[in-house]
């Protein structure tokens, strides 16, 4: 009876700095272990194996030739592992070309990899079925409108070609090679915030950064001071203002400097308050305009993937597990007694964390979660086993980032074993 292994969202390949595969040793080790298994096993990579969208200087099968040239060890290991277990991949949105060009079927077969050019596939597990897809069809910006048509590219394709790939080309021009990690920022709406964070902590002239730091760190204190001043001016309560003045006087030169910093912050706050109304009107009009083009303000369902799984279960009573990827967030959930599985990503991930004090940009803490799911039948039920390949989190934060923020805890833990009896 077949045991299935699932991984997804490797995003291997792309222009310039995007060609760097930070988890390649771990992926090779994972494939080596499968090469020696005595199970009747199949490895299914359910979408975005390759970053074909990220190639902007190559066209057609030249992209595949580039992959072979850049990652010879990986393809040799795929060939070796594929001699022992079946390796199957399906297209995602970032490697949608796999679905549109039959040449990929033949080229991948040379390396013992089976390409199924379908948006969904199924497998049998005991008396039940497993429904497998990438998940881009539930994402309005990346839904393929005419699957299989080489020219039916979604909005995400054009954003990627003109933004993500350019980031890979420009990454090594910065003080740090950080733009290459743009694909790791999810959801995409957080990219502007991520760019601002990296500009402040990495790209900004150090003299300017540390000159502005006292004002940013004391911004919250300044707001409290402004409240104290307003209470005194309006005659509500003057005692706190007198106490603050006495404290600053006792601190001498330090108190005078702090008083100057607070005064500047209050002036900036007043200016922002004056500009807030016209800026609000302008931003609201821009949001409305983008909404008319379908780029902003679309109605969002609470979880389109649970909705999708529910519809699949209702239409297919024999399906006991719904497997998808795309969102880069691994999970194993239960829906009406059946499994809803997200296979996560092997890319670096970022968790934005608010700073301890002041008005500083959030710090995006990097981490890895090299997840895979093992699925098999057991005593008439479906056994879902979740595991991760060990990889240390990167220690790439600056000293300032480590000082002003605390590393967040792991996201929700996933059970190592889950049994679904339906």
From TrEMBL:
Residues 5-181 form the Calcineurin-like phosphoesterase domain. SUPFAM superfamilies: Metallo-dependent phosphatases (SSF56300). Signal peptide: none annotated. The chain crosses the membrane at residues 210-237, 257-283. InterPro entries: Calcineurin-like_PHP, LpxH-like, Metallo-depent_PP-like. PANTHER family: BLL8164 PROTEIN, UDP-2,3-DIACYLGLUCOSAMINE HYDROLASE-RELATED. This is Metallophosphoesterase. The lineage of its organism: Archaea, Methanobacteriati, Methanobacteriota, Stenosarchaea group, Halobacteria.
